[in-house]
Amino acid sequence: MTLAYIPSPSTGVIHLGPIPLRGYAFCIIIGVFVAVWLGNKRWIARGGKPGTVADIAVWAVPFGLIGGRLYHVITDYQLYFGEGRDWVDAFKIWEGGLGIWGAIALGAVGAWIGCRLRGIPLPAWADALAPGIALAQACGRWGNWFNQELYGRPTDLPWALKISEGPNRVAGTYHPTFLYESLWCIGVALLVIWADRRFKLGHGRAFALYVAAYCLGRGWIEYMRVDEAHHILGVRLNVWTAVVVFVLAVVYLVLSQKLRPGREEVVEPDRGPAAGGDAVAGAEDEVAAAGDAGPQEPGAEGAGDEASEAGKAGAGAPDASTGEKPQDSPQSQDAEPASGTASGTAPGAKKL
């Protein structure tokens, strides 16, 4: 008999009149907001503009949802296209079923489109968003709790998850794999934030670290699950996917560090109309300043300076015939200083 356990909600949907409010959807929405909020703070800290992360997320999120659903439907096609199944259920995303592998892959395509439109590098944007994505996954996993799905093997541990009788599930207490993965994702987010500050990760390496760290946890968590899945050589398909993606992420980390060490100095070039207006205004100011100075003959200013220096030197030089220095006369004391212009009259020279 299990003395303590985590209860499951009796229902995953609350109806507000005719409008159904689903816990699964709320978890995903909260995760998106958390990812954009944290990503925006990190993007600004790297020298980017406020709002850029959200603008690109407008592209990345829809692509990610479509990719996540496609991966789930393709890898679990028997749930929708088998005998006695209704293929229309493949479009009922609110009932659960998003594959993170497809979400990240197709979400990256949407992010690439958004980055191209803004003229910024995709790896830099991905680095800023990496820990936020991990936190978004931590929030999204609680959607499985609302739907009573994706739990692990039976257990009588104090933190066991109690599952009620329902379609495709047997009542009992099981490992709360949704909770394990949620906590793991929080740890991944903290790891990426720490490593990014400590080693100044750039050019996509913070994102690659997130992918590698997530795959490590997903491998053993996936191994505990008991929901229906395809197997290859006796191992669940998602475990193989985690192994392959982990290797690719580590290879990228190593090669990227060798080929492009350091971090991007500029992540978002200033290409807006404000920058162009400032440049034009600056050019107009320079032209106005040049006009106020008035026309000058080429070399006149330089010639006047040379004559001034020569006059100063000549005033204190000894007479060539006597070897004595000339004494100042009243005329010289009353003489007006030369203007230092192109007339050639040196400062301190006598008037003739």
Describe this structure in words.
Helix content is 58%, strand content 5%. The C terminus is likely disordered. The chain is mainly alpha-helical and 352 residues long. The protein has a two-stranded antiparallel sheet with strand order 1-2. The protein has a two-stranded antiparallel sheet with strand order 3-4. The longest helix has 24 residues.
Write the layout of secondary structure elements.
Layout: E1 13-16, E2 19-22, H1 23-45, H2 52-75, H3 78-81, H4 100-118, H5 122-140, H6 142-147, E3 161-163, E4 172-174, H7 177-199, H8 205-224, E5 231-232, E6 235-236, H9 237-259, H10 273-293, H11 300-315, H12 330-334
Antiparallel strand pairs: 1-2, 3-4, 5-6
Helix pairs in contact: 1-2, 1-5, 2-4, 5-7, 5-8, 7-8, 8-9
Q: Which residues form runs of ≥5 with pLDDT under 50?
A: 271-291, 293-352
Helix content: 55-70%
Number of helices: 12
Order of helical and strand elements: EEHHHHHHEEHHEEHHHH
Which value, in Å, is the CA radius of gyration? Answer: 37 Å
Biggest sheet: strand arrangement: 1-2
Largest sheet: 2 strands, antiparallel
Beta-strand content bin = 5-15%
Query: Span between N and C termini?
Result: 123 Å
- What is the mean predicted local confidence, pLDDT? 81
Beta strand count: 6
What structural class do helix, strand and pairing data support? mainly alpha
